[in-house]
Amino acid sequence: MSTVQQRSDPAAPAPGVRARGRRGLRRGLDLFGVVPFFAFVAVFLAIPTLVVAIGAFAGDDNRPTLDNLTALTDGYILDAFVRSIVLSAATALLGAVLGALLAYALVTAKPGGLLRRMVTAAAGVLAQFGGVTLAFAFIATIGLSGFVTVFLRDHLGADIYAGGVWLFELPGLILVYTYFQIPLMVIVFLPALDGIRPQWREATESLGGSTWQYWRRVAVPLLAPAFLGSTLLLFANAFSAYATAAALVSQGNPIVPLQIRGTITSEVVLGRANLGKAMALGMIVVVAIVMWLYALLQRRTSRWLG
Fold first, then answer.
1. Contact of 81 with 74, CB cutoff 8 Å
2. Mean pLDDT score, 85-113
3. CA atoms within 13 A on the CB side of 24
4. Which of 136, 158, 206, 216 to pair with 293, CA 20 to 30 A apart?
């Protein structure tokens, strides 16, 4: 009797309404779980990017101006951008080639073996080993008074700095950056190598193809998008690095991040407080273009990798 009364009660919600309410509540709880992520992105990515973009078009009196962007054509700023691009491109290419060879060696090893697990774990650690710690490690090893430098000079009569103190210049930055670019390449390129199926090589051999033809017509075309995408990722990683260069380079041969630091901490550019924001906006544009190209290549790779 009570069931009949409940069904005939006009105030009771319909079953479909209750089901939609439960689905809406469940969807709300699911979205609540990602609130910390969106908060993190907003505080540490969206808001700083917005502040930089607005400040790049504002003068010291907060009036709109294009003077900051015009100043990017100054010689020392252009040199810093060129130096950063050369540094990023060189380390990306070196890291991509050497890292791809190391990743291929891991693929040919025993799957799930001890060697592969150890190298993969080491790559994950070394890819994040940067900043002041990495700079100090190189200074202590091959610096002016590093133990390798002293050993070579005292026992072998070889002076690695006979032509100049290159460690604290662009060649030194290329060497140090390559140190963490190689393991990063191993991490991002290894899944693409794992996606190459042995059946494809067997099919090539069954059709009379040689190893060279397999790599030229099958493996390389399939791996090219993943390789290029990984190289772009390495470029963006080096282009945005700061702490390692700040510890090695003080005044000479500065890159863009160090130039931005100079606009904030020195009085050389007094009256141009937003010039650093304009340079940061230029870096954001370069990284955005690189990551857009990376996303396109990754989309193409995922077609066969999946």
1. no
2. 91
3. 6
4. 216
Q: Provide mean pLDDT across the span 161-165.
A: 86
Task: Give the contacts of 302 (CB within 8 A, at least 6 positions apart).
Answer: none
The pLDDT value given to residue 16: 55
Q: Is the pTM here over 0.85, yes or no?
A: no
Q: Which two tokens stand for residue 285?
A: 């544009």
Residue given tokens 């025993």 in the structure block: 110
Q: Do 221 and 268 contact (CB within 8 A), yes or no?
A: no
C-alpha to C-alpha distance for 22 and 172, rounded to whole angstroms: 61
The pLDDT value given to residue 2:
46
Query: Residue 43: which residues within 8 A CB-CB, separation 6 or more?
Result: none
Helix axes 114-126, 170-194, angle to 10 degrees: 140
In DSSP terms, 58 is beta-bridged to 64
CA distance 227 to 297: 9
- What are 270's two structure tokens? 């007094």
173 CB-near residues (< 8 Å, 6+ apart): 87, 244, 245, 248, 249, 253, 255
Q: Contact 60/274 with Cβ under 8 angstroms?
A: yes
Measured on CA atoms in the order 163, 165, 171, 176, is the torsion positive or negative? positive
Amino acid at 12: A
User: 201 with 114: CB under 8 angstroms?
Assistant: no
Identity of residue 241:
A
Q: For position 3, what pLDDT does the model report?
A: 47
